[in-house]
Amino acid sequence: MQFAWLIRGLRTGIMTTRYPREPETLPTGFRGRPALDAGRCRAADGCAACVQVCLPRAITLEQRVGGGATGRVGEGATEGSGDVPARGQKSNSGIGGETPAIPTADPAVNESVAASPRRPLAHSPTRPVDPSPTRPLAVSGEGGGGVRFNLNYGACIMCGLCVAACPSTAMSMTTEYELAVRRPDDLIFTTTLTRGGADGGPTDSRDAN
Amino acid sequence: MDRPTLAMPTDGDIERVSEQLREAIQRLFKRSLHVRHVDAGSCNACESEIKQLTSPYYDLHRLGIFFSTSPRHADLLLVTGPVTRAMEAPLLRTYEAMPDPRLVVGVGACACDGGIFGQSCLTRGALSRVLPVDVLIPGCPPTPFALIHGLLLAIGRADQKLRHGQMQASGDRPAARATPTPALHGITGVEQ
């Protein structure tokens, strides 16, 4: 009896993962963090498909009014959002290398518009709250400053609805799961999108789409 | 130099001391860490993943991390859930019962940001409103691999990959070894 148990154990071998020493390859279809290809995103042209389907309101869009250095953070924005654009500018060299960023002297947003008519599920320092439920569904980049795209991985439940909804396939699911951070601010992805082509904005891969 | 200048440390001083403190704590916990898990109003999905850590596949014990049944024996507080009103006081009592130095790790979208529960009259909405958080592990629920990474990050055995929402290349971990040590794999050569 015990001998059979031993044989079975020897035949099975070691099942334990070697994860911390070797990267674990997860099965296809595993949903890790969603990532934005900023070059293909059409949020500045009025698209807010991902914002509309995002269940935990992890994705938000904010309007930036052209280059305004005199503006202050609107009432809709909450504490801590003042330094978010600065990080966004810094991170523009990453995923979508050719992100058309608008560098402004003052990163403060003149007007903060959360592009969803729904009431916020929660109010947190990392999530903008729209004070009125009659906000426009989508924001446009007509103000000249473009649209700020925020993705809060702390709120994201990796459901993949934004990927399914994205008409320009800018959102994609990755299999990256090592998302633990020391500072909550590191969970927030921010980038600035501007309108392509028509208003003489920077040309990028968005036009080819 | 007047007295307030002498008495008040500068930001640089505080930063340097806190960095030294963090290194000392990580040195203490590097090889043996006892974890106390508190469910502060979670939906139990995170608990399901945490329970898997003790299974033969993930086997957290091989990393020197153990689950403790008492906060007095614990070094790290693992909190799931958005911290409901009813669990706030027990959570704080648990934290106060732990000996210094202690780490706090929030697990799941609820502990990070309120998650599906959000902030209301019944929940605090995020763990960081209740306790000083050392590491946050997002996900709904995070996979056991993400939990292992978060725990190792808390004790300085892993690098933080996500910065400002973007993944960065790992620094400490070598690339995947092409030929794993044969002795550590199955005796009959079964691939993992």
Q: What does this molecule look like?
A:
Chain A has about 210 residues and is α+β, with helices and mostly antiparallel strands. Chain A has one domain (about 30-195): 2-Layer Sandwich (Alpha-Beta Plaits), CATH 3.30.70. In chain A, about 15% of the residues lie in helices and about 15% in strands. Chain A has four helices and five strands, in the order H-E-H-E-H-E-H-E-E. Chain A has a three-stranded antiparallel beta sheet with strand order 2-3-5, covered by helices on one side. A two-stranded antiparallel sheet of chain A has the order 1-4. Mean pLDDT of chain A is about 65; it is low at about 70-125, about 130-135 and about 195-209. Chain B is about 30% helix and about 15% strand. In chain B, strand 1, helix 3 (about 45-50) and strand 2 form a beta-alpha-beta unit. The longest helix of chain B has 19 residues, at about 10-30. In chain B, the strands form two sheets. Chain B has a five-stranded parallel beta sheet, with helices on both faces. The chains are: A alpha+beta (about 210), B alpha/beta (about 190). The interface between A and B is large, with 56 and 58 residues.
Produce the secondary structure layout.
The complex is a heterodimer of chains A (209) and B (192).
Chain A: H1 2-12, E1 34-36, H2 49-53, E2 59-65, H3 84-91, E3 144-152, H4 161-165, E4 171-173, E5 188-193
Antiparallel strand pairs in A: 1-4, 2-3, 3-5
Chain B: H1 3-7, H2 11-29, E1 33-39, H3 45-52, E2 65-67, E3 76-80, H4 85-97, E4 103-107, H5 108-113, E5 135-137, H6 144-154, E6 162-163, E7 166-167
Parallel strand pairs in B: 1-2, 1-3, 3-4, 4-5
Antiparallel strand pairs in B: 6-7
